[in-house]
Design goal:
184 residues, alpha+beta, YbaK protein, five-stranded mixed beta sheet, four-stranded antiparallel beta sheet, 9 strands, 25% strand, globular, YbaK/aa-tRNA-synth-assoc-dom, YbaK/EbsC family protein
């Protein structure tokens, strides 16, 4: 984690910065999960204007692509029913929505969820959606490369700031499935 912390000038335990997190993320961090105590989650305060992956890595360095993960909301459709799910892949990859995700959800079609749906259903800001604090009923699909990271940088639920968590901690979140081939 030291290498990640050295990149950021403002890092502290997330449990002491709950006011900077969206309510669902703050609640999940405070409660902990899967034996992961709140003290294992670090918040780094960053400029919301550079929250998107390209701007973030341009500012902090391309090496973050190997330790940063993106969380995207997808919508699978079958017979008039829509299933929302979240997918987490390393920032240097993209989600295989029409292959792996669609098959795993058992839907005929899968697409990225519209921004307004992703925001209203998660209670998080677009561009900062975190796998922590998502609705417990949602499937949370995680690429093994994310779980294999000792420490991974993820969204904080807000465009302002990121969280640093152990990669294996994400596999312990409610609804989590580690899915081979998710990130391509």
């Amino acid at each position: 984690m030291r290498a990640l912390l050295d990149i950021f000038s403002d890092a502290s335990p997330a449990a002491g910065r709950l006011d900077l997190l969206t309510p669902p993320v703050a609640k999940a961090v405070e409660a902990g999960w899967g034996g992961i105590p709140a003290e294992s989650v670090v918040h780094v305060d960053t400029d919301p204007e550079i929250a998107d992956t390209a701007a973030f890595t341009e500012h902090y360095g391309p090496e973050l692509l190997d330790t940063s993960a993106n969380c995207v909301v997808v919508a699978g459709k079958r017979g008039g029913e829509t299933t929302l799910a979240a997918c987490v892949v390393l920032s240097r990859t993209r989600v295989d929505v029409n292959g792996v995700v669609r098959r795993h959800l058992g839907t005929r079609k899968a697409t990225f969820a519209p921004m307004d749906v992703a925001v209203s259903e998660t209670g998080m800001e677009y561009g900062g959606i975190a796998p922590i604090g998502l609705p417990a009923s949602w499937p949370l699909l995680i690429d093994p490369a994310v779980v294999d990271q000792e420490w991974v940088l993820i969204g904080s639920g807000s465009r302002r700031g990121k969280l640093i968590v152990p990669g294996k901690a994400l596999a312990a979140l409610p609804g989590a499935t580690v899915l081979e081939g998710l990130g391509v």
